[in-house]
Every structure is written in structure tokens, then in C-alpha cells.
Amino acid sequence: MSKILISARSLRKSYGKRNSKFEALRGVTLNIHEGESVAIIGKSGSGKSTLMHLLALLDKPTRGEITLNGHPTAKLRARKLNTIRNKKFGFVFQSFFMNPNDTVLNNVILPLKIAGVGYRERHRRAVSALKTVDLDDKRNNKASDLSGGQKQRVCIARAIVNGPKVIFADEPTGNLDSATGDKIINLLFKLNREKGITLIIVTHDQDLANKCQRQINIKDGRIVSDSSADVEQDDDGDEEIREIVAESEDDDDEDATPDKFEGDNNIDGMLDQKHPVHHINIEEDEEDL
Length: 289
Hints:
- The chain is α/β, with parallel strands linked by helices.
- It has 9 helices and 10 strands.
- Helix 6 links the parallel strand 7 and strand 8 (198-203).
- Mean pLDDT is 83; it is low at 231-237 and 252-289.
């Protein structure tokens, strides 16, 4: 059994209060192992996207605990969360969240700018990522000139440009025709097989889910089935993630992690179509990181 990368215990997430209270998750417990391909399956409103957002540290549970390589994440400050998401997680969404008026290359480079990577190195990494998705010849094109399938491939290039341990994909083929969608899925699974990237896909498509090693079915905020015979084990996991989390635990700064991270310089804005990815304040992030 491979290393446990992400562990969730008794996760609950609710919205609203009293009579308007809605429980999106109702006590979810699971482990995600390094290198797995996992499908989280459910109908609209089942809680599957909420679960992904919690596992990706994009939101905080109302109750319960999420650990990363055995380290609790609840008390991590916003800066450390941003660092983990930027360096170790990649995101592919149904909506592309690209700057349509910028070049393909600059869209892919964005996470590297946020991470403070130097010009030459971020250019090298971005070109390499575009070659991986067979779009190197489109690097100087505007994003608005691309087809839907090409835009999603650019999003995958952006997701892998920092060498992530995990790719979270939320309905990655939802806006694509079936033939183009198959190409995108094949690319994601190729990255999982050849680079060992853990792949977590949220979908309502059973055919897509069946291509994953593991299928987790969720209904009304609860896991109703899990194809994995999950076995827990002690493991240090990825050293860089461990160091980032441990450093934050040892930090004496009294700033607590806010429920909503301030400013536009974090990936949360990518979840809101009113605040697409190109609104991120790059200069502010380079100073923070």
C-alpha cells in the first residue's frame, strides 16, 4: 500500500444557520494514497465538490480534521496554505479560468509568478509543460483563439507547471464533446501513470469514474460506497510538504487562518467565475512567498 497523502476524519460542512442551515457533508472519513487515481462520484448536490474543496484546502470544514502527510492543517496560516496549494496541488476545473486576452504561455506561467520563480526558469518550465500537452506551437496565441479542448489542455499545463503531488479535477470534461473529453482524460491518466501524480476527479460520469483505480460514491453528504480496502500506515510522505506544514506549526505568529482568505492572491478566486484567475495580484504574492 502506498503512502497516505491526505487523510480526512469525520468531516462536516454546513452553510447557513438555524432554519436555513444546510449540511453539505455529514461525517466523511477517508484516506487518499500517493499515486492513486480516485473518482468522487455523485449527483448534483451530493456534496462531491464540497469534499474536493476541503481536501484541496480551498475551504475549511465546519467540523472534523484534514491531515497532510500526517500533519493537521486546521491551524495553518493563509500564507502556508497558499504555498502548499501553489507548489503541491494542481487544479483543473470545468470552466477554464484563463485570461482570454493573454497568451497561452503567460496563462501557464501564472502559478510560477505567484511562487516567485525567476523569469528564465518559469519560461523554461512553462514551455516544458506546454510540450507535455502538445501545445508548444500555440504558446504565443491568445487564449481566446483556442478551441475548448485546447483550453483545457492549457489548464492541465498550468496545473502541472509547478510539479504538483496532486491534481484535483472537477468535472474536467463537462464543457467538451465526447471525443475531446476522451483526449483530456487520457492525458490526465498518463500524468498519473508516468509522473506518479495523485489524481482526484470529481464527476457524475460513471464511465469516467470506472477508469480510476478507486471510486468513492457520495450521496446526501455521506460516503455510501468506497471501492478501496483502505489500510492506514504511518509514513512521513513528501518531505517538502512535511517541512512546509511543520514550519507553520512551529511558527509563533499569532495570526490565525481566516475563514475567508483576504485579497485576490489565492486560488479561491478561481472558484468564482466573477473573479477569474487573471485577477490575482501577482506582485503582492511574489512578496509574500
